[in-house]
Amino acid sequence: MPGTLYIVATPIGNLEDLSARALRVLSEVELVACEDTRRTRTLLNHFGIKTKTISYHEHNERERAAELCGLLEAGKDIAIVSDAGTPLISDPGFRIVRAAIERGLSIIPVPGPAAFVAALVASGLPSEQFFFAGFLPARAGARRKQLEELRSTRATLVFYEAPHRIAATLKDAAAIFGNRLAAVARELTKLHEETVRGSLAELAQRFSGTVRGEIVLMIAGAGADESTPTVASSDAEMLPNELIKRVRKLEEDGLDSKAALKRAARELGLKRAEAYRIIVAQKNRRSR
Ligand code: SAM
C-alpha cells in the first residue's frame, strides 16, 4: 500500500493552536518534510514528538518532491509542514502536491492556522468574498501596478506584508484606493497581537514609523458598504462605546485607570491623548 501525504498546518505564534489531530499525525508519520528543520524540531520537541525530519524548501522543492513521492510509493506516510501556518499558503508545498497527484497518491489536509483567515475574520470587513493576493511585489513600481489592477475588485483584498514595507504599501494603497476602510492585523496569536481598523489614510498615518512583527493587510473591496462596522475613528458613536467598554473591562481585570486607558487606546489604534479626549467628551455628554 502506498503511503499518504499529509499537509499539516502548524501554529502562527501560539503553540496551543496545534490541533490534536496535527499532533497525532506528526507523531505517527515516518517523516516530516519541513521548510526549516531546526524550527520544526523546536515545535516537535515542545510536544515530545520524535519523528524524523527532512528539509523541503523553495530551493530543493523539485528534487525533494520526486524523492518524497518515491518514499510514499514505498509505503511511507509523510507530513509536510511549513515554518508557520498552512503549507502552500505563501509557502512551499505546491510541487509535492502536484507530483503526488500525478502519481495517484493520496493527499490529506490537516487544517489549522492560516494568518489570512484569522486576520480577515477579526477585521470587521466583509468576509463573504475575499481575494487573497499573498505578498505584493517588493519593488514600488510593480507593487503600484498590482494595486491598480485590483482597484475594481469587489471582494475584500487580503495581503501579506513585510513590516519594513507596510508604510509604503499603505501610502500607495491610500493613493490608489482612496479612503476605503482597511485593517492591519499584526502579530496574531502572539503577545503583542493587535488589529487596527480605520480608513487607509488613518492606517497610513498610524503605521508611518518603524513597524515590527508579522502583518496581514486587508482593504475593503470596490463599492463595499462604507458603513461596515469598524472602530474607525470616523465612527462617532461606536468608537467611544468600544473604548469605554474596553477601559472598564481592563480596570475590572486589575489595571489602574491610566494603564487601562493606555492599553485600550493601543488596541483600538488610537493615540493615548485622543483616547483621553474621547473619554472626557463622553463623560461630559453623559453628565449633561
Ligand atoms: N503559511 C503561512 C500561513 O498559513 O499564514 C504564511 C507564511 S508567509 C511566508 C508569512 C507571512 O504570513 C508573514 O509575513 C505575514 O504576512 C503572515 N503572518 C504569518 N504569521 C502571522 C501572524 N502571527 N500575524 C500576522 N501575520 C502573520
List strands and helices in order, with pairings.
Layout: E1 4-8, H1 20-28, E2 31-34, H2 37-46, E3 52-55, H3 61-73, E4 78-81, H4 94-102, E5 106-110, H5 115-123, E6 130-135, H6 140-149, E7 156-161, H7 166-177, E8 181-186, E9 194-199, H8 200-206, E10 215-219, H9 238-252, H10 257-267, H11 272-287
Parallel strand pairs: 1-4, 1-5, 2-3, 2-4, 6-7
Antiparallel strand pairs: 7-10, 8-9, 8-10
Helix pairs in contact: 3-4, 6-7, 7-8, 9-10, 10-11
This protein binds S-adenosylmethionine.
S-adenosylmethionine (SAM) binds next to α5, β7, β8 and β10.
Task: Write up this protein.
With 288 residues, the protein is α/β, with parallel strands linked by helices. It folds into three domains: 4-113, Tetrapyrrole methylase, N-terminal domain (Cobalt-precorrin-4 Transmethylase, domain 1), CATH 3.40.1010.10; 116-227, Tetrapyrrole methylase, C-terminal domain (Methyltransferase, Cobalt-precorrin-4 Transmethylase, Domain 2, 2-Layer Sandwich); 233-287. It contains eleven helices and ten strands. α3 packs across α4 (94-102), α7 (166-177) packs antiparallel against α8 and α10 (257-267) packs across α11. The longest helix has 16 residues, at 272-287. It is globular and about 75 Å long. The N and C termini lie far apart (78 Å). The model is unreliable at 227-237 (pLDDT under 50). It binds S-adenosylmethionine.
